[in-house]
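Page 42, continued from yesterday. The earlier attempt failed because a stray header line got pasted into the input along with the sequence. Redoing it now with the clean sequence only.
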Amino acid sequence: MNAHTGLKRKNNGTMAALWLLVMAVGVTPALAYDVVDVQHGGSIEGVVKLTGAIPEPKGFNLITFPDPAYCGRISNGRGWRLLRDFVVGPNAGLKDAIVLLEGVESGKPFEMSVPLIEARDCLFQPFMTVVRNGHAVEVINMDPVMHDIQGYETSLEAGARTLFNTPLVMNHQHHRGDIHALHNHAPGASLVGPVYLNKGRRTFYMQCGFHAYMESWAMAVNNPYYALTDSTGAFKIENIPPGTYQMVVWHPQTGPGLTKMVTVQADGKIQEQFSLQAPQGNRSAYKVMDNPRFGPESLGYSIDIQPLVEHQH
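This time it went through. Structure tokens are written below.
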């Protein structure tokens, strides 16, 4: 299958980077989804919470990576970049968990815009994305520095497998100017490359080979009955055909997730609350610390790292 052509997204007049993701999900081919007029559909809504202490963000010392001054525009003011892969609200609500229904073979229209992932200020945004099988993801470099995109497909049984490793070039007409002043992001040129996931795998993540604190995750869905939790952990799935389905709740940093069988009645409303267990222990190679070995002075020359975009705490 060739990569889709003609897919364009205007962003400051430049076409974004495009990756086609062809997902082979499960040990058998995914069933086709049919659009029908749903009569007396039901709904499921609720909250996903994190159980246990909120994990400390992963710490990355900026002087061990390229472009420390530019990427340090988001940092803690002491030369460390933090990756906050858990965003938890005041009532333990977990953001960016996906809730989906498996086994829905027909229902409401399956319309999904092509998701856009930006590399901006050495950060992939968004952290979590949902993609449709056989459709595409756009990725674009908005920074005046080079990024190297490493893509991996994942499964609990076989672990991660490398899919691609390719530069995400910057716009060479990008005038960075004074990074201590306002910075006008400019998109880089497009990259096009097909990516095929093996059977039994439905999640993948991207990481920058130059800046390890840049991560973005995605999950493939087979039908439109899914939701990403908001900043309070809330979700809602509507217009579900009456029937019994498997409900899946997953966050990329909490392990295998949860599954539950649910029966949706005609015009019924189901309230659910799920809890995902927070991981324990050290999740990063280094703990954030003040140590001369990790200070700018260890480079042997002067460097000014200032958190001008976000002062992380």
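Notes: The helical segments are 68-71.
Reminder to self: strip header lines before submitting.
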